[in-house]
Amino acid sequence: MSAHPPVVHTVDAIRTLVMQARAAGRRVGVVPTMGALHAGHVSLVEASNRECDVTVVTIFVNPTQFGPKEDFAKYPRTLEADLERLAGHRVDAVFAPLNEEMYPAGFSTYVEPPQAAALWDGVCRPGHFRGVVTVVLKLFQAVPADAAFFGHKDYQQSVVIRRMVQDLNVPIEIRVMPTVREPDGLAMSSRNVYLSPEERQRALALSRSLHLIEQLAEQGERDAVSLRQRMVATLEAGGVDRIDYATIVDPETLVELNELTGPAVALIAAHVGGTRLIDNCRLGPSSRK
Ligand code: PAF
Q1: From edge to edge, which strands make up the β-sheet containing 264-272?
Q2: What is the reported pTM?
Q3: What is the per-residue pLDDT for 288?
Q4: Ligand 1 centre from 132 Cα, in Å?
Q5: For residue 61, which atom of ligand 1 is closest to its CA?
Q6: Helix or strand or coil: residue 202?
Q7: What pLDDT score was predicted for residue 287?
């Protein structure tokens, strides 16, 4: 069994470690996570290892990105298992701060998220992206890396973070890596552990509906309204309990499209039992992520 990566709990300690690595000319990558690590996170670690000399994984279940009725309290906290999962990979440090380290008494400064945060999950989860961009900026301050690695599965999040970094001149490269799927198509997510076997079967409706419209688009269907209808029909037939949205958007602005005239992204958020799942795929010239 390989040794666990070293765990650092304070901002000062992780920042010192990263600054020293950079001063020595080493390229540093950071993989921000909320833990409950799965193969998708590991693929981000591997991407960082390919592109960087030093990889830092952050594990922090960020309270400010959960709404009052969301799953903050029950979100899986599995630090020991996470360290075990990382043990076989090159991870130079895990930054796992306590809540008080990230949000000390008197904390009251938040980042106003960019426009793209006002749509989709921004509507369904008010305040979510404010919490995300605030904690991500704080993580980038604690871990001043050269590059940060995020998953395509959280597509809107990646657009919002890229824009925040651009708007606020944060000197870090944002890398967005392909979604990792189970063999049956289900996108890997820390929330998949909430699904019962029966719900997990129904959850396959998300990837199935994306796969269908991807094929239709490849066959030349350009009517995004009709593609949306096919997504919704597939989700309903597959037995999802509630659809928050199933849409096709411009990859940059996230504004809904009526016609496919260039690259586009199909986005879905749907509830299966008590679990809210998201998934997406690219449509158009580039392949599925
Ligand atoms: O994608 C996540 O796991 C979280 O939203 C992030 C980026 C780590 C911020 O808490």
Answers
A1: 242-249, 264-272, 275-283
A2: 0.97
A3: 44
A4: 7
A5: 10
A6: helix
A7: 42
